[in-house]
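FORM 7B: Structural annotation worksheet

SECTION A. Query
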Amino acid sequence: MRWRYLAAGSITAALALPVHAQSSVTLYGIIDLGLTYTNIAQTAKVGNRLIGASQFALTDAHATGLSGSRWGLRGAEDLGGGMKAIFVLENGFMANTGALAQGGAEFGRQAYVGVSSNYGTVTAGRQYDPLIDFVQQFSASGSWAGYMGAHPDDLDNLTNTNRINNSVKFTTAKYGGFSAAALYSFGGVAGSETQNQIWGAGLGYTGGSFALAAGYLNARDPNVSFYGNTPNKGTSTANNIGSGGSATAPQSNPVFAGYASAKTLQIIGGGASYTAGSAIFSLAATSTRFDSLGSASGPNPLGYSGDAVFTSLDFNVRYRLTPALQLGTGIDYTHRNSVKNDQGAKYLQLDLGADYNVSKRTDLYLLTVLQRAIGRDSLGQSAVASIAGFSPSTTDKQIGVRLGIRHKF
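SECTION B. Predicted structure
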């Protein structure tokens, strides 16, 4: 009889354990594939002449769509007293080929662990910076236009081209509609506390029909710390920001690829939105500065010095025509100052989109982006149009179109 009571007591205690330490792990993901078309894309460079042609392709959304394909694990364990241990491991992949995205990182989208409480959350690992957390939602690309709707070559990173490694972030709980966050990424260089360091902060407010936010990011030696933070990127001796192309390869990121020698990257952004019935009107503005060009942080074949400063304005509207159908339109303007007396550059872009929900988890969408470039770009050439995710144009104009399907699980 005594053994029976002991056995019953042991079973009761075992069953009671989850009550005191509840935990959960969720598997989630997105697959987003689409057919893309561009009227002109570079295929090679012979001497100073750019060679190009129109292109049809089947691509993952990492390149041009709404949501890059991914799968992830999200977990939480109740520690008691309103505290939880949390983690996220999120892998990005190319659904059209099965290859890893984010430069080949196994969990290139996010990988962090932390603790949350009623006051806020502390996380450490590879994660998004506060500028993304607070300001991205007001841009066309961050709300309905996808990666191809980013500002030229995603120069201000509002569409998550780069994440932050080796970082610690604190995000407050919401108080009266307000929340804030701060992040610091350790450079990890012996004898130099500031080399390769990244820090940022953000603040946001949501109340009724209005929402607004601001954010800041500062990256020292950005060619290495910010752009070179994925497995297949090089060291400071290589240009991790972009490429001038070759006889067999197109250019990449011509809008700002020439500024790899910047000592500091600074991005300041702000945004606001107003909801009126079925329509949401949004405005986003950023200032992106490549400071102290000519430093040892990266190559400088064109001999740049001083600062390159981009200012981008993005006004967009999305309208819920029916419960299943959303339409979007936006226009953005980007201007860069004169560097080495090149008279600067300007980029005008029009974004159009339609998204139809077939079910709660599956939607079909159509995106179109038109861009025009004026002036001279960072590669010292007559500025070419360069829609984010597409190979740059050979001329000052480019059109990109995507018909996609997205499924969430």
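SECTION C. Observations
The chain has five helices and 17 strands. The CA atoms of residues 132 and 160 lie 7 Å apart.

SECTION D. Sign-off
Analyst initials: ____
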